[in-house]
């Protein structure tokens, strides 16, 4: 019976602390604007409060999350807040159809670009086609996600409805506030406003010195507001004059942030801004766009040329291996001829690059060839002596 009755002072204090310290959000419920909070955040908030710390000779009110949940159940039964149910709003079918059509159009454009690139390339061998197919499959898998229209990260709209089971549960459950006490700041601001209105009505009864001071303050404030308004008009006139004289090429703004939604100090800085929008600026923009396009085109050409060089190297290596196996009769068996063949193969495998040979290397090679010829003569002379 006590739980359903009027709340105690301690319960009011806990509910007030939770109301002003627990993070809340606002939404519409049954045509009314309401504030709601999430259960897990409320439990964390109360565990960090003064009631979770033990005083001298007394035990803490909140020791575990379960104790906080039990206490919040008491607050719920005393109608400080009630449990609500999130209901997501469904998007109309028109938006989904438009998104699908956009995705199809973008995928069709990508396929056309790919077909144009493939038609410009030369015909290649079957192995290259198989490699291309494998690469295209991998690219298609990668491009499936970027090809689809990127959905903007928009928050899903939802509405709240009252829940049938009114129980406090620790988790992502939503609870709507019924208890709405007046904050101390709003109370103080209202009190100051009331006092200011009463003082303004009693202005004829003020002392003469105070009335003169207020008069000068009001005149100064009026002059300040008037000067800001005149500056706002003058800066627009100055912009129009410069714009007309230069034919719309120079855009000069004095105090550009004067009427912007910024702070008082930020509204006076920077002092001015200047932009040139003439033919040179257009040329610079075009040059930047052309340079970006050329970089992309060069990167694509490099990738194609690298592939062709690898394929040419492979075909020449296979040809050289065939010539080495079948043309054994044509080439001589001497070591000097074999070395020359190795040099020619090395130069053809590196894409017809020429090797720079110094004089010392040439002299070493000639010395080695002379030594080998002497060894061959010795081998020929030895069996003749053995026969004798």
From TrEMBL:
Database matches in InterPro entries: Sec62 (IPR004728)
Acidic residues composition bias: residue spans: 363-379
Compositional bias annotation for Basic and acidic residues: 91-145, 279-317, 327-345
An annotated GO cellular component: endoplasmic reticulum membrane
Membrane disposition: Multi-pass membrane protein
TM stretches of this protein: 187-208, 214-245
Keywords: Endoplasmic reticulum, Membrane, Protein transport, Translocation, Transmembrane, Transmembrane helix, Transport
One matching Pfam family: Sec62
Chief location of this protein within or outside the cell: endoplasmic reticulum
GO biological process: post-translational protein targeting to membrane, translocation
Subcellular location: Endoplasmic reticulum membrane
Chain intervals for the UniProt region annotation (Disordered): 91-157, 279-388
Family: Belongs to the SEC62 family.
Name this protein carries in UniProt: Translocation protein SEC62
Organism of origin: Glareola pratincola
